[in-house]
Write a structure and sequence with these properties.
Elements (H helix, E strand, L loop, with lengths): L5 E6 L5 E8 L6 E6 L2 E6 L13 E7 L2 E5 L4 H9 L4 H12 L10 E7 L4 E8 L2 E6 L7 E5 L7 E2 L7 H9 L6 E7 L8 E5 L2
Antiparallel strand pairs: 1-2, 1-10, 2-12, 3-4, 4-5, 5-6, 6-7, 7-8, 8-9, 10-11, 12-13
Helix pairs in contact: 1-2
Length: 202
């Protein structure tokens, strides 16, 4: 099944939080995810055809203090900007998704996000599409994970992922059952330095 891009919020069997994001694409497979300090970026590969599409390159992971967010587009930046000036994570997600709306491309692609605030030990998942705006706190038990995707699975849906490190979880995310994987990223924000792992097909 093809569900497009998706964000993940989960806990390992030991109860450690993690966040993940996977690029799945039929239209733009020539992309990778590059980890940087405190963030990760979706970029075209060197052999990618030239494109003026504004939606194929963007920050997909950002952190500020106790808050980490993953998302499928530029709305991740105003979410973190609002957190930086004192908004709670839920409100920052609601305001940013509402303000930017879904992507006005040929597919009317929804904007999705997952966020975690270690200070409150709460995680949220959100989506804005043509027909809905949802930001929901998701309770996650050890060993559980949930995804929200741009297509088909557009509400928090359980996904089975195994691993106890960012690298193991990133591999599990990239190789999960959904079609057309391009690149994936996973972070475990509670670990020292908030380690980030990436996996790309190209």
């Amino acid at each position: 099944m093809y569900i497009g891009r998706f964000v993940v919020l989960g806990k390992t069997i030991n109860g450690e939080w993690y966040l993940g994001y996977r690029v799945s694409s039929r239209s733009f497979p020539n992309r990778r995810i590059l980890a940087q300090t405190g963030k990760a970026v979706v970029l075209p590969t060197e052999d990618a055809p030239k494109s003026d599409n504004p939606y194929i390159s963007y920050n997909c992971l950002r952190s500020h203090q106790t808050v980490t967010v993953v998302a499928n587009g530029s709305h991740i930046d105003p979410i973190i900007d609002k957190v930086e000036i004192g908004y709670g994570l839920r409100d920052a997600m609601i305001l940013s998704l509402f303000a930017l709306d879904y992507e006005h491309d040929q597919y009317n692609t929804p904007r999705i996000a997952a966020g975690l605030d270690l200070a409150t030990n709460q995680g949220y998942m959100g989506i804005v599409a043509e027909d809905k705006l949802l930001v929901q706190r998701v309770k996650v038990a050890p060993g559980e994970a949930f995804l929200v995707a741009t297509y088909e699975l557009t509400s928090p849906t359980k996904i089975s992922l195994s691993g106890n490190s960012p690298e193991e979880l990133c591999t599990a995310l990239f190789t999960s059952e959904y079609e057309h994987p391009v690149a994936a990223v996973v972070t475990m924000p509670a670990r020292s330095g908030g380690p980030i792992a990436t996996h790309s097909a190209r």
